[in-house]
Specification:
The protein is an alpha/beta fold. It has 13 helices and 10 strands. Strands 1, 2, 3, 4, 5, 6, 7, 8, 9 and 10 form a 10-stranded mixed beta sheet that branches. Helix 4 links the parallel strand 7 and strand 8 (149-153). The longest helix is centred in the middle third of the chain and has 14 residues, at 105-118. The chain is globular. The model is unreliable at 164-182 (pLDDT under 50).
Length: 316
C-alpha cells in the first residue's frame, strides 16, 4: 500500500494492549503529555500520537528503544511557536503493528508518511533523534511529504543505532526470531539499576524521570522485540547516497560525550549534504535533548532563524 492510499480511523479509547506490550491505561498513567495522546489506525498500524502547540508544523521522530516520552522536555520550549506531532514508531511504545510488518527504513518512512497524509499534517520541520534521522532523510527524499528543514540529534546513519547498540544485527535477527532475547532483556529491565546503567552507557546523565519512563517500556517484551526487529532490518548502506540527494538544510547536532554515535559522524554527514551544518553540544551524550532540552531548543530555533538558501538541484 502506498503512503497516500492509507485511511485514518480515530479511536475513541486506547486499544487493548498487545501481548507482552505496554498498556496505556496502566503503564501510561503518568506518561508525559498524556492529555495530548490520541490513537489512530492507519492501515496495519495503530498509532500513539501526541499533538501539541501552534505554529510551524513539526514532526518529532524518536530513535530505537524510545517513544514520545523522549520529547517531553523539548516540547515546552517549542510549543508556543510550533505545531508539534510526536509519534511512537511502529513496534515502539504504545503504537501497535502487525507482526508481519518489516521495520525497514523504507517501511518506517512509508508508515510515518501515511500517518501525516491521513492527518493532513504537512511537516515543514522534522526533528529526529538517532535512528529517526534515517527515517527523516528518507522521507524528505521520497517526496510524499515536503519538509523545509531537518534537525538531526545524534543522527545514527551508520550500523547499530539506539539503546541496544551492543547487539549486532545478525544476533538481533537470530534472537528476535524466537523472542528469547526480548523476554530476557525485558526481565532484566525490571531492575531499575540496569536501566540506569543502559542509559548511562550512551554517554548521557539520565534523570530519575528518564530512567522511569525507559524502564516502563523496556520491561515489556513487545517493546524490546520491536526495538530488536528494527535493528535487524536496518540497512544503512544507502544512507550516504540519500544524504547526497538531500536538497534542504539539515542541522546535525552531536553530543560531544555521545558513546553510541561517534560525535565526528555529524561533520562527515554534513559534508555529504549540500546544505548541512554540524554543531557540537559539549558535555551532552546520546540523549542530549532529554538531558538539556533548553539548550537543544536554542540550537533548533537559531537554525530556523537562518535565511533559507536557494535549494540546489538534487544530483542525478
Amino acid at each position: 500500500m502506498r503512503s497516500a492510499d492509507a485511511k485514518v480511523a480515530h479511536l475513541s479509547a486506547p486499544p487493548v494492549a498487545q501481548q507482552g506490550g505496554p498498556d496505556f491505561q496502566r503503564d501510561g498513567v503518568d506518561w508525559p503529555n498524556r492529555e495530548a495522546s490520541q490513537f489512530v489506525r492507519v492501515g496495519a498500524v495503530i498509532w500513539h500520537t501526541q499533538r501539541i502547540g501552534h505554529g510551524t508544523p513539526t514532526l518529532l521522530i524518536h530513535g530505537t528503544g524510545a517513544a514520545t516520552h523522549s520529547w517531553a522536555g523539548l516540547i515546552p520550549h517549542l510549543a508556543e511557536t510550533h505545531d508539534l506531532l510526536a509519534v511512537d514508531l511502529p513496534g515502539h511504545g504504545f503504537t501497535q503493528v502487525s507482526r508481519h510488518f518489516r521495520p525497514t527504513i523504507d517501511n518506517m518512512a512509508s508508515a510515518v508518511e501515511a500517518l501525516c497524509l491521513g492527518l493532513s499534517f504537512k511537516p515543514e520541520l522534522i526533528i529526529a533523534h538517532s535512528a529517526g534521522t534515517a527515517i527523516a532523510i528518507r522521507m524528505a527524499n521520497r517526496g510524499q511529504v515536503h519538509p523545509e528543514r531537518i534537525v538531526s540529534i545524534n543522527g545514527a546513519l551508520r550500523p547499530y543505532p539506539g539503546l541496544l547498540a551492543p547487539l549486532a544485527t545478525g544476533a538481533a535477527r537470530l534472537l528476535t526470531a524466537g523472542g528469547l532475547a526480548a523476554s530476557m532483556l525485558a526481565n532484566g529491565a525490571r531492575d531499575i539499576r540496569r536501566v540506569e546503567r543502559l542509559l548511562t552507557q550512551t554517554g548521557s546523565h539520565p534523570s530519575k524521570d528518564m530512567i522511569a519512563h525507559y524502564g516502563a517500556l523496556l520491561r515489556h517484551p513487545a517493546h524490546v522485540s520491536g526495538t530488536l526487529s528494527m535493528m535487524a532490518h536496518w540497512d544503512l548502506s544507502p544512507m550516504p547516497a540519500n544524504c547526497v540527494r538531500l536538497s534542504i538544510p539539515i542541522l546535525f547536532l552531536a553530543g560531544a560525550d555521545d558513546l553510541t554515535v561517534p560525535p565526528g559522524d555529524a561533520i562527515d554527514h554534513a559534508r555529504r549534504t549540500s546544505l548541512g551544518i554540524a554543531k557540537s553540544l559539549e558535555t551532552l551524550g546520546h540523549l542530549a535533548h532529554e538531558e538539556d532540552p533548553s539548550r537543544v531548543a536554542e540550537e533548533i530555533l537559531a537554525f530556523e532563524a537562518r535565511p533559507t538558501p536557494p535549494r540546489p538541484e538534487p544530483p542525478g
